[in-house]
Write a structure and sequence with these properties.
Layout (H helix, E strand, L loop, with lengths): L2 H18 L10 E4 L6 E8 L2 E8 L8 E6 L3 E4 L4 E2 L3 E2 L4 E5 L7 E7 L5 H13 L17 E3 L14 E3 L2 E9 L23 E8 L2 E3 L6 H11 L33 H10 L7 H8 L54 E8 L4 E6 L21 E7 L2 H4 L4 E2 L3 E3 L1
Parallel strand pairs: 12-17, 15-18
Antiparallel strand pairs: 1-2, 2-3, 3-9, 4-8, 5-6, 5-9, 7-8, 10-15, 11-14, 12-13, 14-19, 15-16, 16-17
């Protein structure tokens, strides 16, 4: 979005939120293409009884002012966009004319009310008067790429040995990966911006010197995560949907103890890693381990697809549970890392710009609903990753996302 688009959205959204209380904009008597008194204006009227709201768009690159709408007599009228009360001109025994200004390619909203303004309306109009003090033309219409920064996954203590983990020997690595976003093409701003890049982009290629590190041989299981909750007494600040597939967040049937834990946010996964003196992997570390340090390897086991190395995809309307983390030995990497693709997505890095945060997920998962191109694309291939918009831990948690840990060596 351009700065002008952002400002226009802020103003229009403020009006939408204010009018929501009386449900004007969901009126079943909505009147589209309401007659206006000047060309290039498109208005809709949303009545509720004897009151209502007009929304107006100026499709012209020129300002429009003067007589705009004919309205019933005997009402109070308020220009919600500019935050002022209108003084209509009577033109008959039944009608008045409303006159106000709409800037080039701008917006308007008028409230028709049976009563004088109460405190809430006066407060809202005062805020809109401040918000619209400067015209939209004062904001740039030039689109610019928002810079992103990566949120560090931190460092861990370097221990003499990690018997529960696999040592991944470091080395030079040509980190080559592409985002699988459905829209955006190869335009700047699509996907993420790694620290060595000047702007976000879909395709990434960079020579890295990867240090030695340890990686969990399996994704974290339900049993391991339960042990963490018992020992650490961890309770997330935002607990909605937390380990949703358990009973009372404390119990699960033994048959799922070796399944990867799901319904955990990036913050939950980070807490588990920190408690165990570990951390989440960086995107390039995850790929380096999965490829065995070989840039041209498409899958953990080689370059040819083998469906028997991953769970059978769920393609129906109901998402089944994931498979046990050790159910597919053929899916191991050359260094003995299991369950990298096809079972659950795995958390890695989080990126943020001025407005949003997004996480990079790796490995794809077993749920592949059919019938629309808008379902989250799969990333079984190791040279692809998924970008996942973050909103709140309760919403970020999913039945299709788990995690594994790494540690510095």
């Amino acid at each position: 979005m351009t700065p002008r688009d952002s400002e226009a959205t802020r103003r229009v959204a403020s009006i939408l939120r204010f009018t929501k209380e009386k449900e004007f904009l969901t009126s079943p008597d909505w009147q589209p293409f309401y007659d206006t008194m000047q060309p290039n204006l498109y208005a809709s009227y949303f009545p509720r009884g004897d009151e209502g709201v007009w929304t107006i768009i100026n499709s012209s690159p020129k300002p429009i002012s003067g007589n705009i709408l004919i309205a019933p007599i005997g009402r109070y009228y308020y220009d919600l966009y500019h935050g002022v009360r209108l003084e209509p001109t009577q033109v008959s025994d039944f009608h008045v004319v409303l006159h106000f200004d709409i800037e080039p390619n701008g917006y308007g909203a008028v409230l028709c009310s049976l009563s004088a303004p109460d405190f809430k309306l006066r407060e809202f109009m005062a805020s809109m008067a401040v918000m619209t003090k400067f015209p939209l033309s004062a904001f740039s219409s030039e689109w610019q790429v928002l810079q992103q920064e990566i949120i560090s996954n931190g460092n861990t203590p370097v221990l003499k040995s990690r018997s529960d983990m696999v040592l991944i020997p470091g080395g030079n690595f040509n980190f080559t990966v592409s985002g699988v976003e459905i829209e955006g093409g190869d335009n700047p701003g699509v996907d993420v911006q790694f620290p060595w890049e000047k702007f976000p982009r879909r395709h990434h290629s960079f020579n890295l010197n990867v240090s030695n590190f340890y990686m969990d041989p399996y994704p974290v299981t339900n049993q391991e995560f339960l042990n963490f909750l018992i020992q650490d007494q961890y309770v997330p600040d935002d607990s909605h949907n937390f380990v949703k597939h358990w009973t009372n967040k404390t119990f699960f049937p033994p048959k799922i103890s070796r399944q990867p834990v799901i319904w955990v946010s990036w913050e939950d996964a980070t807490a588990y890693c920190n408690f165990n003196l570990k951390r989440l992997p960086n995107d390039w570390e995850w790929q380096y381990a999965a490829q065995g340090g070989k840039t041209d390897r498409l899958y953990p086991w080689g370059n040819s697809w083998n469906a028997s190395n991953v769970p059978i995809p769920d393609m129906g309307r109901v998402m089944g549970p994931p498979s046990d983390v050790d159910a597919f030995p053929g899916g191991r990497s050359s260094q003995g890392i299991w369950d990298l693709v096809g079972n659950v997505y795995q958390w890695t890095n989080v990126f943020r710009d001025d407005h949003t945060r997004s996480a990079i997920l790796r490995g794809g998962n077993h749920y592949q609903p059919q019938g629309s191109r808008w379902y989250f694309p799969q990333t079984y291939q190791l040279n692809q990753h998924s970008k996942y918009l973050l909103m709140a831990p309760s919403i970020d948690r999913s039945a299709g996302i788990g995690f594994r840990c790494v540690a510095d060596a």
